[in-house]
Amino acid sequence: MSVKSDIEIAREADKRPIQEIGEKLGIPSSDLLPFGHDKAKVSESFIKSVQGNKDGKLILVTAINPTPAGEGKTTTTVGLGDGLNAVLKESGKKAAVCIREASLGPCFGMKGGAAGGGYAQVVPMEEMNLHFTGDFHAITSAHNLLSAMIDNHIYWGNELEIDIRRIVWRRVMDMNDRALRQITASLGGIANGFPREAGFDITVASEVMAILCLATDLDDLKKRLGDIIVAYRRDRSPVYCRDIKADGAMTVLLQQAMQPNLVQTLENNPAFVHGGPFANIAHGCNSVVATKTALKLADYVVTEAGFGADLGAEKFLNIKCRKAGIAPEAVVIVATVRAMKMNGGVAKSDLGQENVDAVKQGCANLGRHIENIKQFGVPAIVAINHFISDTDAEIESVKEYVATQGAEAVLCKHWAEGSKGIETLANKVIQMIDGGSAQYAPLYSDNMPLFEKIETIAKRIYRADEVLADKRIRDQLRQWEDAGYGNLPVCMAKTQYSFSTDPNLRGAPVGHSLPVREVRLSAGAGFIVVICGEIMTMPGLPKVPSAEAIMLDEKGFVQGLF
């Protein structure tokens, strides 16, 4: 029997009108801005009207370090949301899902889509993985409007005395294009301005993306946009976005994008899909507005953080929770037998063969993540995302290992069975929350010096022996502290594939160093970006990009998205 692809399953979904999905959360149809029949934005006025509601319980889904074998973190997030709704049905309580929007870069590159998979998906799958409601285009436009206004200001006399050698605001586009990482702009003569070095990042690495995902409302959005540092003068004093007078127009471009998107799972449960910063080069969480709105409308909210727990969960717990005043009651760590085998040294081509010893060896990566989550004072449970090639002995070896770490592992079959396959985990998560053992606390205090914050994450999360940073970087951090930015959290940009900065160093490495290549001040977003190792803020396409297989068939359906 052939297994249906994700896109085939999504296309066969019995979708309900988005107004019916809104009704499940008490959102009147008049407060939904529909985009077609199956997706809508939630009005700002409605969001303001529910701020007096009691908050539901927040559940974070994270994972081990990603491998080419695939872990299924978003699939588990969506499946758990459906599972919770299934077990809560008789109680009258309800659950909602909050995930990030997909970036076109990885969709056409290597990673694929971001809507879950199998029978644990959010739909409409094609639209979500492509243009959706236009949020990313709005962010790209707002970011590049500021870029254009900076160069225009310089062209018309440079009243702010910007040192064009010290413009720190790059351009962005929502596509992987390595050729644009470093460019020379304004060539072609006097009419085109003053030639200078510039470059592009991918949209999900934009500070505007981070700001949209951390802002609480339009007023907060405008203030944060105004706080963006775009350049420095010869005396090293900063020039802000508000000095360029771009913050008002940028807010106008982002007004609709600030409203969370409501869609549905395959089982017609509500899902908010809003914002999409990458976790390796940004803070990796969906928007604060979407999460806090969901908490006001649902009894349980399941959200995810990008890549492994060393990146997404760390930033969720140290940055998003700190900034938004929220805290998870439980954390689910997604792992697979296949990934354990890869961490144990098995080649991808050999993953179908039973290898209990390799599973046991690879479990060290999972154990490290369990230890790290516990440092934040939040209880953790492991979801073993089931693959058909998993054997009973391999599954049991993961369960036994997790038990030695003081946690529990639950086999989940949501990909194949939907909510039915994950009800056991749903019940156990509810029990964990009802037990009330969560005592969330960030890993470092606001007033800790910036370099010590970097060291804290490097040593306690990555298990590095030391942080390597030259005098230029240390001096820059001290200058920002003197300028009043010392209380900001740090957003670590490093490879997602390892606890170290070497993507090939799998498992739970120790004895390594963390090299810091560059630091960037995101004054509007409210954090310091710390770029480590060879991480790129503008990814490139792989040798065989997914785009080569994406096309329309003779019926006009999209093929090749996954």
Structure explained in plain terms:
The chain has 562 residues and is α/β, with parallel strands linked by helices. The protein folds into three domains: 6-133 and 257-435, Rossmann fold (3-Layer(aba) Sandwich), CATH 3.40.50; 136-246, Domain 2, N(10)-formyltetrahydrofolate synthetase, CATH 3.30.1510; 450-532, Formyltetrahydrofolate synthetase, domain 3 (Roll). The chain is built from 20 helices and 25 strands. Helix 7 (135-155) crosses helix 8 (207-214) and helix 7 (135-155) runs antiparallel to helix 11 (247-254). It is globular and about 70 Å long. The mean pLDDT is 94.
List the helices and strands and how they pair.
Layout: H1 6-11, H2 18-24, E1 32-34, E2 40-42, H3 44-49, E3 57-63, H4 73-88, E4 95-99, H5 104-108, E5 116-117, E6 120-123, H6 125-129, H7 135-155, E7 162-167, E8 171-173, E9 183-185, E10 196-198, E11 200-202, H8 207-214, H9 218-226, E12 229-233, E13 238-240, H10 241-244, H11 247-254, E14 261-265, E15 270-273, H12 288-297, E16 300-304, H13 309-324, E17 330-335, H14 337-343, H15 356-375, E18 380-385, H16 392-404, E19 409-412, H17 414-417, H18 423-435, H19 450-460, E20 466-468, H20 471-485, E21 490-493, E22 513-522, E23 527-532, E24 551-552, E25 558-559
Parallel strand pairs: 3-16, 3-17, 4-15, 4-16, 8-11, 17-18, 18-19, 20-22, 21-23
Antiparallel strand pairs: 1-2, 2-14, 5-6, 6-14, 7-12, 9-10, 12-13, 14-15, 22-23, 24-25
